């Protein structure tokens, strides 16, 4: 899967990762989530994304007049409106102008399994890049709940992923976590006791929150169209 679905988000003094989605894509994934008999999803959808999914903790303090800048391959846009999904570290942003048409990976309607191989796309350490790095990993466990040290960042329906050889770092937050071409979650937290990065990352799973993500999109009304 090409990485042009992953974007870099920046606001004054900070940046994060995110990935492009459209209403049609979320609708297809949600239908498969609600109907176990209809789970033969195509691996991707060619569409103009109107939204970005990212880590909700990046959006804290972003309620001012300054827009969030969205940069990626063949994309330079902004987002001013966003909604955080209650109880977990998932945020939905609406692009002020839909992105150019591209292949968007489908969101998995089912949870990821123990031992599955993953690839996390993120811009950690690449605050000016347009192409994300790729972090191979493997699922260690699913957890019902995870909490950051601060303790303002919470993940409900989490996944513990061991990334190797390169760990996830700050700036990778919000990046998509794929397995077999489907997006299962987004990067949320790293595990770094006393500053030592253990390579174990907490991922916010998407499948249990697909209904809430779709409702969040409805809060914006009709997305801008050209």
Automatic annotation (TrEMBL):
InterPro entries attached to this UniProt entry: Peptidase_S1_PA (IPR009003)
Read off the Pfam families from this record.
Answer: Trypsin_2
Report the superkingdom from the record: Bacteria
Name-wise, this protein is Trypsin-like peptidase domain-containing protein
């Amino acid at each position: 899967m090409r990485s042009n679905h992953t974007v870099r988000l920046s606001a004054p003094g900070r940046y994060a990762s995110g990935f492009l989605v459209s209403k049609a894509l979320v609708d297809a994934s949600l239908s498969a989530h609600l109907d176990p008999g209809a789970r033969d999803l195509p691996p991707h959808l060619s569409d103009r994304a109107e939204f970005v999914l990212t880590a909700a903790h990046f959006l804290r303090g972003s309620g001012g007049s300054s827009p969030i800048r969205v940069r990626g391959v063949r994309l330079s846009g902004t987002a001013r409106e966003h909604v955080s999904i209650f109880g977990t570290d998932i945020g939905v942003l609406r692009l002020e102008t839909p992105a150019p048409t591209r292949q968007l990976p489908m969101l998995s309607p089912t949870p990821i399994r123990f031992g599955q191989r993953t690839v996390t796309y993120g811009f950690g350490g690449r605050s000016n890049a347009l192409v994300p790095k790729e972090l191979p990993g493997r699922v260690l466990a699913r957890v019902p709940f995870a909490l950051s040290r601060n303790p303002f960042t919470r993940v409900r329906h989490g996944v513990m992923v061991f990334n190797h050889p390169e760990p996830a770092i700050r700036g990778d937050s919000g990046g998509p976590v794929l397995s077999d071409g489907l997006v299962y979650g987004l990067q949320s937290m790293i595990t770094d006791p006393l500053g030592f990065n253990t390579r174990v990352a907490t991922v916010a799973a998407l499948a249990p929150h697909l209904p809430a993500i779709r409702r969040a999109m409805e809060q914006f009304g009709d997305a801008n169209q050209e």
